[in-house]
Design goal:
The complex is a heterodimer. Chain A is an alpha+beta fold. Helix content of chain A is about 25%, strand content about 30%. Classes of the chains: A alpha+beta, B mainly alpha.
């Protein structure tokens, strides 16, 4: 009887791991859907506990913080396309809708970055550590974004979370959309690729110290393909 | 902490025999009952034989010193289990960066399986299942680590399905060995899975289930009611764990909605929602006390009474805190506490 219970528990462990590893294989089957090269500005090293030897980088994106709405392009049509009930959110601001998962198109080193650089608040400020990744579009599924932004060196489609909050400005109720999270928040760098990054953990960069080639598979889960350091080519 | 199936019954019988012998001595001392030597010897022989048999089969406690020591062993076993869980996590994180991905994945999968083997081996060697329960907690922690780190290794987007798997493992082990901590871990895992799945069906992100306490409330109510549908003849202590996990979830969800009506699914003004849930909270606490008395469940009565008191004090703070001088407020609270003591004393008599 007890042996049966132990075998059932073992089956749970084996089957669950099998499913996870199959999904990992499915993500990477048929090669990458997207591959992009990003620097330490966009993929900074994550905080690491003293007794942790793993290395991870975070996907760092930029907000247009000089305008009232960080995402002016995230309009009613796009929000309703994600499933938000815009009219209800306006009518009933005391019940803010829950964040919804979405696919987010990020632009790398493009017009949004130029616009951000030329903003009054940032003129004459050192800008060689800021991320040049800007969210520029969202959709419920990835296909329309992949079609609309075909340049894989400039655009990256990732999973994310869109939030809608109600604020009152100058006596008028407004709905303020935001992208609250991109998934995965931390990207693991496997050994031995992580070796050059290990010595950098905990130190502050004055300029980008590495470039990471990142690939995304069918499930939009990334993996690190290679890491280059300036002068290593 | 852990108890084998039937050990509870055995312990109850040993306790009854102990009380019977004590009463027999007292009755003889007061000359209410006079036994012949033959009768006394027959009773002593029977009780000693029965206690020996129960001790041999179930490793029960036959005196108060043993009982106190057993309680200490349960506490040590639970603390030891938690410490070992922390050790497993920290040990892995200390060395995982030095191991290639394939090696990491292999270690993550094999560790809980080895733990299962150790658990089975320990259960064969002992009757009280202290070590088995301790290893069981480590197996559960290893499996949590397994899925969390595997997700990190391959940069997977999190999903509530992991809680389904963790719950299945914990419940399988809990029911196999009669281990209540693992039963509780399994129920909590499935409660999270249930609540997160309902939220994700609405199109929202699953991790925001905390912002909709009604999902947890429904799940908690189902867990609390489960022992009424399914009888636990083999694991007589399990219904108590079901009720504890279920009712705690229900009461904490009600407390959350008491203050944050905006987090409800109900399409009403937040203040109205809060008032509705305040009434429901009092009714649920009162019902819990009533059901506990009716079905002779002292733990349920206590939990209901604790939350009834918390809800009452929360209401007093809402009503009086802002306008009443603080010394009057605390004086009133003290006076009401005395009133509650009288009420609970009457309840206690009713239960007796």
């Amino acid at each position: 009887m007890r042996l049966g219970g132990i075998l059932a528990a073992a089956a749970v462990i084996v089957i669950t791991n099998g499913v996870v590893l199959l999904e990992v294989a499915r993500n990477r089957a048929g090669g990458a859907i997207e591959t992009i090269r990003l620097t330490e500005r966009e993929l900074p090293l994550g905080f690491r506990e003293k007794e942790n030897t793993g290395v991870a980088v975070g996907l760092n994106w930029q907000r247009l913080s000089f305008v009232a709405n960080d995402y002016p392009w995230l309009d009613r049509t796009k929000l309703e396309g994600l499933g938000f009930d815009y009219a209800k959110a306006l009518r009933d601001p005391q019940h803010p809708p829950l964040p919804r998962p979405a696919f987010v198109a990020l632009e790398y080193n493009g017009p949004a970055w130029e616009q951000w650089l030329n903003s009054a608040a940032l003129k004459d400020m050192p800008n060689d550590t800021y991320s040049r990744l800007f969210p520029i579009d969202v959709a419920r599924t990835p296909e329309p974004l992949l079609r609309k932004y075909p340049n894989r060196e400039k655009y990256l489609v990732v999973r994310g979370l869109v939030q809608l909050s109600a604020v009152t400005r100058q006596g008028q109720l407004q709905l303020l959309p935001s992208i609250s999270q991109l998934f995965p928040a931390a990207i693991h760098v496997p050994s031995p690729l992580s070796d050059p990054l290990n010595v950098m953990v905990g130190t502050n960069p004055t300029s980008p110290r590495y470039t990471i080639t990142l690939s995304y598979g069918r499930s939009f889960e990334p993996w690190v393909v290679r890491i280059d350091q300036p002068g290593s080519d | 902490m852990p108890e084998a199936a039937g050990r509870g019954d055995a312990q109850q019988r040993a306790d009854r025999l102990g009380i019977f012998l004590d009463e027999l001595v007292e009755l003889e001392r007061q000359h209410v009952l006079v036994l012949t030597e033959e009768q006394r010897s027959s009773i002593e022989s029977f009780t000693s034989r029965t206690l020996e048999d129960l001790t041999r089969r179930y490793d029960i406690d036959v005196n108060s010193s043993q009982k106190q020591l057993s309680l200490g062993m349960r506490i040590v076993s639970a603390l030891g289990g938690l410490a070992l869980c922390a050790a497993v996590f920290l040990f892995f994180y200390r060395f995982w960066g030095l191991i290639p991905a394939a090696g990491q994945a292999a270690i993550l999968v094999v560790t809980p399986l080895l733990g299962l083997a150790a658990m089975h081996f320990a259960s064969i060697r002992e009757r009280t299942l202290y070590f088995t329960g301790l290893i069981g907690l480590v197996v559960f922690a290893s499996f949590v680590l397994n899925l969390v780190v595997l997700g990190q290794l391959f940069n997977r987007v999190s999903s509530p399905n992991a809680f389904l798997a963790w719950g299945a493992l914990a419940l399988a082990l809990g029911y196999t060995y009669g281990l209540r901590p693992l039963l509780a871990a399994g129920l909590i895992s499935w409660l999270v899975f249930f609540s997160a799945t309902i939220v994700s069906w609405s199109g929202a992100w699953w991790e925001s289930f905390f912002s909709r306490p009604e999902c947890i409330l429904i799940g908690g109510a189902l867990i609390a009611a489960f022992p009424a549908w399914v009888h636990h003849r083999k694991h007589e202590n399990f219904p108590g764990t079901y009720r504890l996990v279920g009712l705690l979830s229900v009461f904490l969800s009600l407390l959350a909605l008491w203050y944050a009506g905006a987090n409800s699914f109900l399409p009403l003004e937040p203040k109205s929602i809060e008032r509705i849930y305040q009434v429901i909270a009092f009714m649920t606490a009162a019902f819990t006390i009533w059901a506990g008395i009716k079905y002779k469940l002292s733990g349920t009565v206590n939990l209901g009474a604790v939350f009834f008191t918390i809800f009452l004090y929360a209401k007093f703070v809402d009503w009086w805190w802002d306008w009443m001088p603080k010394y009057v407020f605390f004086f009133l609270i003290g006076a009401i506490a005395i009133g509650l003591l009288f009420a609970f004393r009457k309840l206690r008599s009713a239960i007796a």
